[in-house]
C-alpha cells in the first residue's frame, strides 16, 4: 500500500479492515482483530462465522465507510486520514443507523479525536473514537495472540507495515 501511496487512502484502509474483520478471512487471525476493535466500543459482542463486513454502505442520508454485521449487532465505522468530515457527516450516519438493533459507532482518525460533525449530544456520545496507531496495536495483538496457529500471511505483514508508516511508528 505504501509504495503506491495507498497508505493515505481511506478506501484502501476500508478494504483492508473489511478483510481483517471477517472471522473466516484468509488472514488466519480468526475473530481476534474484530474482537479487539469491538473492545474499543464497550462490552464484548458475540462474533460468529456468520459475521460479515461490507464497505461503502449507503443509507438515506449517509454512507458508512465500513459496516460489520453480527447476529444481533452492527458496527458502523467512519475512517479519516486526510479528508475532513463533510457537513453533519457523523450526525447523518448516527441518524441513519440509530434504530438498528445493537448498533455501535467507531470513528478512526490519525489522532483518535472525536467527530466534529455531530449536532446532538446523543450522537456525540454514541461515537467511540480510535487512532490509527491503536488500530495497529489491535492488529499486532491479534497476530501475537494467533501465534503459531495462524499461517504467516504476507498481506497482514504488509498492512501492518502500511499502518506503521501511516502512524509513523517503527514496524517490528
Automatic annotation (TrEMBL):
Name recorded for this polypeptide: Transposase
Highest taxon, organism lineage: Bacteria
Pfam families: PDDEXK_4 (PF14281)
Amino acid at each position: 500500500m505504501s509504495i503506491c501511496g495507498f497508505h493515505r487512502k481511506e478506501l484502501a484502509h476500508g478494504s483492508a479492515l473489511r478483510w481483517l474483520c471477517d472471522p473466516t478471512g484468509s488472514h488466519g487471525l480468526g475473530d481476534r482483530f474484530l474482537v479487539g476493535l469491538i473492545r474499543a466500543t464497550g462490552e464484548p459482542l458475540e462474533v460468529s462465522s456468520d459475521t460479515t463486513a461490507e464497505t461503502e454502505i449507503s443509507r438515506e442520508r449517509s454512507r458508512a465507510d465500513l459496516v460489520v454485521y453480527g447476529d444481533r449487532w452492527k458496527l458502523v465505522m467512519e475512517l479519516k486520514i486526510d479528508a475532513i468530515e463533510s457537513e453533519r457527516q457523523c450526525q447523518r450516519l448516527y441518524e441513519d443507523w440509530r434504530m438498528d438493533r445493537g448498533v455501535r459507532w467507531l470513528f478512526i482518525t490519525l489522532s483518535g479525536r472525536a467527530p466534529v460533525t455531530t449536532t446532538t449530544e446523543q450522537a456525540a456520545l454514541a461515537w467511540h473514537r480510535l487512532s490509527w496507531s491503536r488500530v495497529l496495536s489491535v492488529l499486532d495483538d491479534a497476530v501475537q495472540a494467533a501465534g503459531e496457529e495462524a499461517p504467516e500471511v504476507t498481506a497482514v505483514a504488509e498492512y501492518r507495515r502500511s499502518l506503521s508508516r501511516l502512524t509513523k511508528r517503527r514496524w517490528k
